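User: I'm putting together notes for a lab meeting next week and I want to include a structural view of one of the chains we've been expressing. I don't have a solved structure, so I'd like a prediction I can at least talk through. The sequence is below, exactly as it appears in our construct file.
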Amino acid sequence: MTKISRLGMLTPSSNTVVEPVTTAMLSGIADVSVHFSRLKVTAIAASDTSDRQFAESEILRAADLLADARVDVIAWNGTSASWLGFARDERVCERIAAATGTAACTSVLAFREIFARTGVTRVGLVTPYIDAIQAKIIANFAGAGIACPAERHAGLTENFAFAEVGERDIGEMARAVAGAGVDAIAIMCTNMRGARLAESLEAELGVPVYDSIATTVWKSLLLAGIPPGRVRGWGGLFANPRLGQLHQHASCISAPRARANQHEEISPPAH
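Assistant: Thanks for the context. Below is the predicted structure for the 271-residue chain, given as structure tokens.
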């Protein structure tokens, strides 16, 4: 009998990249399954209307539905805290864990942890966002001691349209920021098609390339007790021995209580 670890992902409603990319990333790990829940997000702008899409109540409602599937981890697979502030995601993780009894993490807190654990202080930032959002992201990371000496952004507001930025364009943006002496490149948006490019760009540019979906999967696997190194072909994030184990004081919230019957047991197919 094989025990199945379940990863739960919260994603914006208009996101069309998270589900297929996450599923592909985990396709070679038979004892891990991934499950999704959505919250209403359609556009990203520097406005109160845009910010209200990420209200804790909305995220918690979607997390509560995922908890019904008895997942081992609930991850917010969105990057709103990159411009709204790390404290937003820290609070969301606390509330998800308290409400569901399930360990929680987010893409943005995973970025911050990865940078801290690998000594990254200069990041090349690639996003699909508008000027105002990009400036907020840069300021947020600067407050955590992480400079963004080079950046590129597509100037889009419609969340659905982020997925239509082609891999060729994303690659060109990554190449443009790589020349600024950065320690790493961050592709910051879970509806941007950067994950499949990470490994080839790293080989070409000689710096780590961290994609938002990949950081979420990495942290979720650690919380579920699954070695990230089992993910192959998606960049150095998963192969880096400095990032292969869960840190006690890392950016996540562990479940305050165990959930019954958390794992599903599946028998191998008969031959």
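A couple of points you could mention at the meeting. The first strand starts at residue 2 and ends at 12. DSSP finds eleven helices and nine strands in the chain.

User: Perfect, that's what I needed.
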